[in-house]
Amino acid sequence: MANGSLDRWIFNKNQDLSLDWQVRKKIILDIAKGLAYLHEDCNRKIIHLDIKPQNILLDENFNAKVSDFGLSKLIEKDQSQVVTSMRGTPGYMAPEWLSSIITEKVDVYSFGIVVLEILCGRQNIDESQLDENRHLLELFRRKQEEGKLLDLVDECNGDMQSNATEVMEMMKVVASCLQTEHANRPSMSSLVKLFEGSVDVVINMDEDSQNELTLEVEVESLASTVADSVLSGPR
């Protein structure tokens, strides 16, 4: 793929490699379409389990393709959930991995983290940041409570700043994808319809955002200690 992986473009502070808002929106839609296809249009449902910028490849026109199915799980169409050993990349793993009983909504959670990274232009775990800002999800929750989400919009990109209102609307979608209760997260197909403007999607929201923060930290801690886990590192 001519333009490599998504992380090369969204974590790079070089203005020459910076993506404008329209391109980022298109990439988000392409990822959503890819996941919707895996979850609903294949003969057997495919849960990717390792959605992250390193596994999103871009062609010469910045069309995005979901790649690397080394950790994916096949389940039957009539299965609502599956029990499996923990697998994925710490920082992108949904809270329900604590029970090892998962659905395709773990991909929706990972998608939410990736979209947040696209909007903010930084990694979800950034060791170069101050301690209180190191975890992007925690920072997102805090700014959400303070009503200061605008602070998170990629400050190295003037076009993102110019479209801040639309970016903020996308952050609401991110919040719906990152809910603790997996049943409340939207399906990928409903998100595709929302992004394409073909239908209004009503999203149920969790009340306990603090619980989400606690579980996120626990998942990362558990992911580093469970012996039979299948964890994916940087590509």
From TrEMBL:
<feature type="domain" description="Protein kinase">
    <location>
        <begin position="1"/>
        <end position="203"/>
    </location>
</feature>
<dbReference type="InterPro" id="IPR051343">
    <property type="entry name" value="G-type_lectin_kinases/EP1-like"/>
</dbReference>
<keyword id="KW-0675">Receptor</keyword>
<dbReference type="GO" id="GO:0030246">
    <property type="term" value="F:carbohydrate binding"/>
</dbReference>
<dbReference type="InterPro" id="IPR011009">
    <property type="entry name" value="Kinase-like_dom_sf"/>
</dbReference>
<keyword id="KW-1015">Disulfide bond</keyword>
<keyword id="KW-0067">ATP-binding</keyword>
<dbReference type="GO" id="GO:0005524">
    <property type="term" value="F:ATP binding"/>
</dbReference>
<keyword id="KW-0732">Signal</keyword>
<keyword id="KW-1133">Transmembrane helix</keyword>
<keyword id="KW-0808">Transferase</keyword>
<keyword id="KW-0430">Lectin</keyword>
<dbReference type="InterPro" id="IPR008271">
    <property type="entry name" value="Ser/Thr_kinase_AS"/>
</dbReference>
<dbReference type="GO" id="GO:0016020">
    <property type="term" value="C:membrane"/>
</dbReference>
<dbReference type="InterPro" id="IPR000719">
    <property type="entry name" value="Prot_kinase_dom"/>
</dbReference>
<keyword id="KW-0597">Phosphoprotein</keyword>
<keyword id="KW-0325">Glycoprotein</keyword>
<keyword id="KW-0723">Serine/threonine-protein kinase</keyword>
<dbReference type="GO" id="GO:0004674">
    <property type="term" value="F:protein serine/threonine kinase activity"/>
</dbReference>
<keyword id="KW-0812">Transmembrane</keyword>
<keyword id="KW-0472">Membrane</keyword>
<keyword id="KW-0245">EGF-like domain</keyword>
<protein>
    <recommendedName>
        <fullName>non-specific serine/threonine protein kinase</fullName>
        <ecNumber>2.7.11.1</ecNumber>
    </recommendedName>
</protein>
<dbReference type="Pfam" id="PF00069">
    <property type="entry name" value="Pkinase"/>
</dbReference>
<keyword id="KW-0547">Nucleotide-binding</keyword>
<keyword id="KW-0418">Kinase</keyword>
